[in-house]
Design a protein that fits this description.
Strand content: under 5%
Largest sheet: none
Helix content: 55-70%
Protein name: 30S ribosomal protein S21
Radius of gyration: 27 Å
Number of domains: 2
Length: about 80
């Protein structure tokens, strides 16, 4: 979607005022906010990819629990419970 913000130079208008008027037009059209919203947009992952990632995380957690039980890995302290 292309949004054009166009301004014409009036008689006796300084270039700074022209730039200021253009900036206001762009801001009012929502061009900058839309671009910032698109900046970090990522594609939606397929169901199979999400499932594979979830299974990988579950397997890793089980492996860490097993290592903690065997004493090969220190337990992590619980974080964020100081209220």
């Amino acid at each position: 979607m292309a949004t054009n913000a166009e301004v014409q130079k009036n008689d006796n208008e300084t270039p700074i005022n022209l730039i200021r008027r253009f900036s206001k037009r762009v801001q009012g059209a929502g061009v900058i906010s839309e671009l910032r919203g698109r900046r970090y947009h990522s594609r939606v992952k397929s169901r199979e990819v999400r499932r594979a990632q979830t299974l990988k995380v579950i397997k890793r957690r089980e492996n860490v629990k097993e290592l903690i039980k065997l004493g090969k890995m220190p337990e992590r302290p619980v974080r964020g419970r100081r209220r």
